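User: Second chain of the day. Same drill as before.
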Amino acid sequence: MLQNIFQSFLAAAGKPKLGFTVTLIAGCTNAILDALFIAVFKWGVAGAAFATGIGQVLGGVIPLVYFARNNGSLLKFVRTKIQIKPILKACGNGLSELLTNIASSVVSMLYNSQLMKFLGEDGVAAYGVLMYVQLVFFAIEIGYSIGSAPIIGYDYGAENNTELKNLFKKSLIILCISGVALSALAQMLAYPLAKLFVGYDEGLCTLTISAFRIFSFSFIFSGITIFSSGFFTALNNGMVSATLSVLRSLVFQVVFVYLLPYLFGVDGIWWAMFATEACAFAVSFIMFSAYRKKYGYA
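Assistant: Same format as last time:
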């Protein structure tokens, strides 16, 4: 929890490089200790657990020490009274992220259920590969969304509409271009990535390549849909953010993962994510248009 939350504090404090360094230290520590505990000490799964724990401890403790002392930023720990109202407001504003994580688990079960029905175990295995690879591609867009949120919140709070408009416009351009680029990259990497994960089974590998090439079209829209939810969270509008998250991560996916296979066969399952992101993309721009005057970002 500390490792994740301190990333936002470091960005708000104007120290994103330190946040990156902390993440790098934690990740490298995890990887090195994995090799040491598993390959050298022969601790097996328990060794992997220890390595993960130690890496995350470093990721949480280093920022804790940084903010506990005088530092080069405007943020540090001080004595304060417990204020319930701001805490409840923060919880409400973060509702979208809560719902997204809950919905992701539910949707994964639905996908697996449909895949077992239409493709059996090979379908579930292919979906597992897609989820691992998807995280790598989505990480770029999620990182941008998280990194830009403190700047958006600061400019809005400071009533710096000129900078807010500039950031909003450039963000849309960057995410649209990166979405197309990531989709094209995914098309090119479909074969080697499938070979890496399931190269031991020719039939499963062919299925995974086909699924990934359909699935990867969703990356065209995902940057904007991920950003839109984070954008409204940064503007302290948890309701709009939660609405966007629920529609994208639950409602649209449930509808399409059940509907499309009956219209287009088994490929409909893989097209479900593309249809979801396309609809979420449209809703995001409706929300952007509806609230542009209220927040002054366009």
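The mean pLDDT is 92.

User: Great, on to the next one.
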